[in-house]
Design a protein that fits this description.
Layout lengths: L15 H11 L13 E4 L5 E5 L5 E11 L5 E8 L5 E4 L9 E2 L5 E4 L2 E6 L2 E6 L5 E4 L4 E3 L1
């Protein structure tokens, strides 16, 4: 029982939205200060293209509007990757890593030899050494 004249303090509660917002702010577009082993994670403003890269020179992007059939007939998002050797490819990976931060239209990001540019028309990722890569949008995707 509380002492007379004292009010009982309620514990502070942090809402799920506030927690998620704090986590999103704390996770940078490129973690570990852009170091060679840093993780890169981003998405387009439309939320249709999600990209991820860890430790190696490859970047992989998933297009949610472009679907493929995986094992057991499950539906997945197609994925495009450009590797350190500059060879781009498309495949049905059976997984997805959702980008944590938005790469706004008109912005670009260069990391470990790959440059990705976000535009209203779509996302272009290119290996700077080879000029090869891919273009991804809701309507079309192509390798060059």
């Amino acid at each position: 029982m509380d002492a007379p004249g004292r009010t009982r303090r309620r514990p502070r509660r942090v809402g799920l939205l506030a927690t998620m917002l704090a986590a999103a702010i704390a996770i940078p577009l490129v973690s570990a200060g852009g170091a060679a082993g840093a993780t890169v994670s981003f998405r387009t403003p439309s939320n249709n293209v999600h990209c991820y890269s860890d430790s190696g020179p490859s970047v992989q992007c998933w297009v949610l509007s472009a679907t493929c059939r995986g094992y057991g007939g499950a539906t997945y998002a197609y994925s495009w990757a450009v590797r350190g050797n500059g060879r781009p490819s498309r495949f049905c990976p059976g997984d997805i890593v959702r980008g944590s931060r938005v790469l706004r239209y008109g912005q670009s990001l260069t990391f470990r030899g790959t440059r990705c540019v976000s535009r209203t028309s779509g996302l272009t990722c290119t290996r700077t050494a080879t000029g090869r890569g891919f273009f991804l949008s809701r309507e079309r995707q192509r390798i060059f």
